[in-house]
């Protein structure tokens, strides 16, 4: 019988994650079923990733996101993310290559976290939450305006991928490489940015006319939703 060992989150990180998702749930009447052409993730798993990202994007857009002892500026034209089965498949294929997954693609962002000494055998949904908290934790530890070290540059780049205002699609997955668990997300459209804040500061949207990055967009509680004019190949 396999003995499954898993790392445990600190209590404050668990509380932070729960509060973020609780805050998001106030805006959701019924969760959309997110089905893709593979069954590695459930709809609930996909919502762990998607809901976390949209929750923090909404908090930032409305000026409610703390950054150490202050708040980030509000964001205009901050778009709500949708789940992409194609991006999910792409990141899974890349993670399955183990150490050769790191080649970047123009126009795409990629965040990856790894757990070592991990025994495979179950869907690591607990580790999904740990990964998201780890990516976001730099916001509680360092100000975005402070000088950055090599470590904080890499950590803030993960946040930049999560907060790039014009990004509309996300797909996440995981893979085991012997006793190493890789969890990652891909973002589109998204590219490496050197900007301290990966969005244009300004009031969050209140009306559809405030959402101008993509045609036929609409506003929903501080986040813009991309219009569906034309074929959207990254969603479905």
**What is the residue-averaged pLDDT?**
84
Question: What order do the strands of the largest sheet run in, or round the barrel if closed?
Answer: 4-6-7-5
The portion of residues assigned to helices is: 25-40%
Uncertain segments are: 1-29
| SSE order, one letter for each helix or strand | HHEEEEHEHHHEEEEE
Q: Which overall shape is indicated by the principal axes computed on the Cα atoms?
A: globular
Radius of gyration: 17 Å
Largest sheet: 4 strands, mixed
Number of discrete helical segments:
6
Intertermini distance: 38 Å
Count of strand segments: 10
How much strand?
15-25%
User: What is the structural class?
Assistant: alpha+beta
Pfam family, one: CAP
Domain SCP: 44-195
Protein name: SCP domain-containing protein
